[in-house]
Design goal:
This protein is mainly β. The chain has one domain (5-78). It is built from one helix and five strands.
């Protein structure tokens, strides 16, 4: 199931932009917004804008995934 436009806009406006490079935008969840997939607060939102992206992860993360338009949205949850 994909995220609706109004839900996406509301979500992104609540997050802190952290950067954009190589077809990937990142946002930090500084206000404990709940993940739309698992309903627990997530750490970061990674928006993959291109058809193919490569992500280099430096931490062990749990990921929740959805889509909006042609973009893949990754919600990261840092493991304790």
């Amino acid at each position: 199931m994909r995220m609706e436009d109004t839900d996406y806009e509301r979500l992104v406006s609540s997050l802190t932009p952290r950067g954009s490079a190589n077809g990937v935008r990142t946002y930090q969840n500084t206000v404990s917004v709940a993940c739309p997939a698992c309903e627990t607060p997530f750490d970061d939102l990674v928006v993959c804008e291109e058809e193919y992206n490569s992500l280099e992860l430096s931490l062990m993360l749990d990921l929740c995934v959805t889509t909006h338009d042609d973009e893949v949205l990754l919600f990261t949850h840092k493991q304790d």
